[in-house]
Specification:
It is built from 7 helices and 6 strands, in the order H-H-H-H-H-E-H-E-H-E-E-E-E. Helix content is about 40%, strand content about 15%.
């Protein structure tokens, strides 16, 4: 398990530390120690200190072409993103493809809720996902009011595994954490356990 200081930092970042740790151990085994150390060492890192990352990797002889370095760099970027813009910045700009952990954002993490006032009392939202995610019901909070964006995500992300599907749900306005009506993805962040009428759809 991560050290106490790392767990505290991940909690501030709203990261599911148990899930993150398991995923890292599955990929890197004992090298998970580097993630623990990096998160501790660079918990307050800023954009101006980005060069420190390669110094760290070089000091530990981490191969610059390795998957380990790629995932460590994502962890480093996540710290910069969180320190510059809080949980919402981390939520929006982390890269799942590079091993970013799941972030469970809450309303109290924000000072602005975007364009929620533009929503109806009940809104239909969409998400492109794998069949495995749908069957597990462990949905992430990345949803959209645009069904075509959900379809695009399902088709682009799951090109190697033909099980990308589009799922729609209904969310009450009061259960929306943030909505960006002007962004290209029309992203809406719901409270997951408040989703209603969840079903697979064809777009």
């Amino acid at each position: 398990m991560f050290s106490e200081n790392t767990l505290k930092q991940l909690n501030l970042m709203r990261v599911d530390s148990d899930d993150y740790f398991r995923n890292l151990v599955d990929k890197f085994g004992a090298d998970v120690k580097y993630f623990d150390e990096l998160i501790n060492k660079f918990s307050k890192v800023t954009e101006e200190e980005r060069a420190l990352f390669m110094d760290y990797c070089n000091s530990h002889n981490i191969d610059s072409d390795s998957l380990l370095l790629d995932h460590l760099y994502e962890a480093f970027n996540n710290l910069i993103s969180f320190n510059s813009g809080g949980v919402l910045s981390l939520f929006k700009f982390k890269s799942a493809e590079s091993g970013a952990p799941r972030v469970n954002i809450r309303k109290e993490d924000l000072t602005s809720y975007g364009d929620i006032d533009m929503l109806s009392e009940k809104t239909i939202i969409y998400r492109g996902m794998s069949k495995q995610e749908y069957e597990s019901k462990k949905f992430t909070q990345h949803w959209s009011t645009d069904p075509n964006k959900a379809k695009e995500f399902a088709e682009d992300i799951y090109t190697d595994a033909p099980d990308g599907i589009v799922v729609k749900a209904v969310i009450n306005k009061e259960d929306v954490i943030h909505y960006d009506s002007f962004g290209s993805e029309k992203e809406l962040i719901p409270i997951i356990n408040k989703l209603e009428n969840i079903e697979v759809v064809s777009i």
